[in-house]
Structures
1.
Amino acid sequence: MPTVLEAAPPSAKGLEGVVANQSSICYVFGEEGRLIYRGYDIHDLAEHSTFEETAYLLLRGDLPTRDQLAVFLTELKAAQKLPKVVQRVIKDAPLTAHPMNVLRTAVSASVFADADHGDESAAAEYRKAVRLIAQLPTMVAMFHRLRNGQRPLAPRRGLSLAANFLYMISGAVPDAEAAKALDVALILHADHELNASTFAARVIAATLADMHGAVTGALGALAGPLHGGANTEVMKMLLEIGSPDRAEAWVREGLARKRKIMGFGHRVYRTEDPRAAHLRRMAEHLGRKAGQPQWFAIQRIIEDVMRREKGLCCNVDFYSASMYYVMGIPLDLYTPIFAISRVSGWCAHVLEQHADNRLIRPRAEYVGPMNRSWTSLGRRR
Ligand code: ACO
């Protein structure tokens, strides 16, 4: 008889290096610092694509033709308005709630009004995915306006998803540069292989739970500061540091105290995250344009210190933080913006999981006590 420990090989803590499934959606080349969606390099997509086109690519596997894109945009526009039940849930949320908690609850509630609820066919799941991609920005913006005592705005015709989001939170149609910057950020965040939230979505989907359940679970995973929540933490750090002359000492002290410096490190990349280069460039440009170059200056110093002291590069959450800040976006909307983009990846993974499903059920390496004798309640100490 094997003992429990012999029966299972030692676990990789945090599943590091474990290949959990096959996928044709996205791949991270950790050593080279390369990222592809459906075979396309992220640099090409960031330079030439739009978020809508990228979302279609993730869901369908190929870039859309002109006609296919027109249909997709029409489907998205038709689904942007929130069902009444979702509006009620958002209106009932405490004004002090974290927008990620409101978003997660609103997404969960949106199943009540979903026209395809109960139909798990690929065609129905695709329609659910389109509705979720269309509605997440409206959900976030609605809550944001309500908590500011403002009237929520209906989606505006003729705007991209990124521009429309900026319009719905601020009430002003953004200039082309701001809309383009957010659009590129959404492209860069749209998928990232088996990151924690996507894995959570696939685990849920693999029980044959539906799209809304998987996306709700993924939102829960994304919110954590080790994952999508890091972008907000980065900006809090920059505000605390305040000026470039304090940056080096602040980071050195943090490292001496064994603190994690937010926006650095990655489970897979061993070199620079390819998404960071685009965000660095946009953060510098928009910071200068907004008359707030200090955040970028602080970040360059932090980046140098982290590379020298720890050999660590920044990740996607580092420069997105100051970019959103100088665009006037409140700190607690950074992670919801991540979600507005990543929902396209989550939905693509749920579709892929359901197309060739097997329950995801790993084993634990048992390290607890064995062979204990039963003690009755009165004799326990
Ligand atoms: N600051 C300081 N030290 C760090 C950092 C950091 N940001 N990241 C890793 N390290 C150090 C750890 O202290 C550890 O050192 P040790 O071996 O001396 O104890 C070593 O590097 C390995 O770190 P782990 O946390 O074990 O690495 P893991 O692969 O488990 O974690 C993670 C990756 C969670 C991203 C980690 O680097 C981290 O916590 N970063 C800060 C949070 C962050 O930016 N998250 C966003 C990630 S990207 C995304 O999810 C969108």
2.
Amino acid sequence: MEKCIFCEIAKHNLPANIVFEDNNVMAFADINPATKGHILVIPRKHCLNLFDIESDLFTRIFQLAKRIARIMPEVLGCSGVNLLHSAGESAWQEVMHFHLHIIPRYNRKELQRPFIPHSTDKDELKEIARRIKEKIK
Ligand code: 5GP
Ligand code: ZN
């Protein structure tokens, strides 16, 4: 089986520009940054994505992302950030170990918006909301 790159980074078997680590989570610089200062936050334990991460670990990832994002304007001079998580190949996930992107933003034009809002059928919206509401735990 091929080794997971981010597991190897988490174990310090592969180099990375680490900005924070504890027993549960780690943050390091993305090797091909979308903008200057692009950081990835990962759980040290392997899991695939949003669909299988433990809630406690998910909370820790977002807590760390918040700590990092809040110092970015001062350190990098950015004026905003995007948080991005891709869960599944259809959602563009390429590295199959959970990661949350923190992408510092300097202006509106440097990146493309990942979605275009569409108008849709009002009954469909209502029906989808009803089905999700029914199943939510
Ligand atoms: P995804 O498309 O799965 O959401 O994002 C994967 C991210 O991991 C990409 O932004 C890519 O640049 C980054 N990446 C892939 N391999 C490595 C690596 O070996 N080291 C680091 N630091 N980042 C990586
Ligand atoms: Zn892994």
